[in-house]
């Protein structure tokens, strides 16, 4: 049986551009990866008064495969300390979503200042615990960047092959306790780290686009 060829960065870029230009809602992919029960949240709904944040889904070639970046937050960083996330953060006053995602990635992982192509945005996602409306931005670099973690914010940078995310065995299900309530938690296991919550929900939509399957 022939082995399928590994898609190039340019093939993936073309596929994502086409998918991101589609007006088809993709919020159901968030629901599939959401911890349950999840009070104060429903797929596609963002309440008035939510603060705005942006994260970057950064794609680049390395070692003959396309990768994306995750970070494990330092233990000293606020509400989501120690969790695995996409680089990003809150918008500064007057800042666009794309500019904020790129600025935060420069601050957190030393993203190079040029050569970045923004492809578009994934669906916004509301995070009740922090009252943030999260806007994921997808972008590509033609070269493997040299990334350096900001010591006060990032404990580890993960360069993850897309095919690792596409591996069906990476999606697992576990349990967590929150306020004495047991919740079911879908998560991706990537490079020995558990990726759950909002980051898993964003990656679920991203994976849906990579597989050419848009859910309404």
UniProtKB/TrEMBL annotation:
Transmembrane segments: none
Species per Swiss-Prot/TrEMBL record: marine metagenome
Gene3D superfamilies (alphabetical): Nucleoside Triphosphate Pyrophosphohydrolase
Entry cofactors: Mg(2+); Mn(2+)
Pfam families for this protein: NUDIX
Domain Nudix hydrolase: 50-184
Name of the protein in its database record: Nudix hydrolase domain-containing protein
Cell inner membrane as UniProt keyword: no
Record GO terms (molecular function): coenzyme A diphosphatase activity; metal ion binding
SUPFAM superfamilies to which the protein is assigned, alphabetical: Nudix (SSF55811)
Keywords: Hydrolase, Magnesium, Manganese, Metal-binding
PROSITE patterns xref list: NUDIX (PS51462), NUDIX_BOX (PS00893)
